[in-house]
Design a protein that fits this description.
binds ligand MTE, globular, alpha+beta, 10 strands, 5 helices, binds molybdenum atom, Sulfite Oxidase, Chain A, domain 2, 5-stranded mixed β-sheet, 5-stranded antiparallel β-sheet
Length: 220
């Protein structure tokens, strides 16, 4: 089944979910699914495809209101200070996966590397799938558990999970964690992304959090 982006309204998201649950069952989700009571990831893709970008060819473009626009390679990202933590991943539709290990570079680290110009207010994110998009305010982007992730579930981020590099916005619902991250643009206003245009809140704070970080409370 393939649904074009234009065809994917709110109904498309629901129809897609059953396919995605099936794909999640096929691909499995790694260690988290083996934990007692642990749920497992559903693999989501709004295009029906999984963009394949090799480690060698991967580039993360950082542009817009920055002093030093950059095309970051995997080596560049891995040379930057790494951060890692264990958090509960939660989709707004109700499924969640506790105890997920993540590793990557803080978005704040990348912003400091390129230098944010005055007048910058928000970030826009683009995907190699050419369809998904996301946004964060600068303030949200600088939270310590908002990262550009290259490891997940104890290994490199797999293609179906958005590898080689995806966003992980720990304090917010899963739709903010854009997969197959291709570009970060520093901009002067918040531009709502794909899921927001389909009805999800622009500020996707997890229930029970104060709008700061994900304390990994278990989210019972
Ligand atoms: N490019 C892209 N990123 C995406 C999505 C998507 O469909 N395409 N789905 C989002 C949603 S709604 C969720 S819950 C998570 C799911 O991550 P997973 O596919 O690794 O389980 O990815 C988010 N990032
Ligand atoms: Mo989601």
């Amino acid at each position: 089944m393939f649904l074009g982006v234009a065809a994917l309204g709110a109904v498309g998201v629901v129809v897609g979910a059953s396919v995605q649950n099936f794909l999640g069952d096929v691909f499995g989700s790694g260690f988290a699914s083996l934990l007692p009571g642990g749920d497992h990831f559903r693999i989501y893709t709004i295009t029906g495809a999984y963009p394949k970008v090799s480690r060698d060819r991967y580039r993360l473009e950082v542009s817009g209101l920055v002093e030093r626009p950059a095309m970051l390679t995997m080596d560049d990202l891995e040379a930057m200070p790494a951060t890692s933590f264990v958090k509960t991943f939660q989709c707004v539709t109700g499924w969640r996966v506790p105890g997920v290990h993540w590793q990557g570079v803080r978005l704040s680290e990348i912003l400091d590397t390129v230098g944010v110009k005055p007048g910058a207010v928000a970030l826009s994110f683009e995907s190699y799938d050419r369809s998904d998009s996301e946004s964060l305010t600068l303030e949200q982007a600088r939270l310590p558990d908002v990262i550009v992730a290259y490891r997940m579930l104890g290994g490199p981020v797999t293609t179906e999970h958005g590898g080689p590099v995806r966003l992980y916005v720990a304090p917010m619902y899963g739709y903010k964690s854009l997969k197959w991250l291709s570009a970060i643009r520093v901009v002067d206003q918040v531009v709502p992304g794909y899921w927001e245009q389909n009805g999800y809140p622009v500020n996707g704070w997890l229930d029970g959090t104060t709008g700061s970080t994900n304390p990994d409370p278990g989210l019972t």
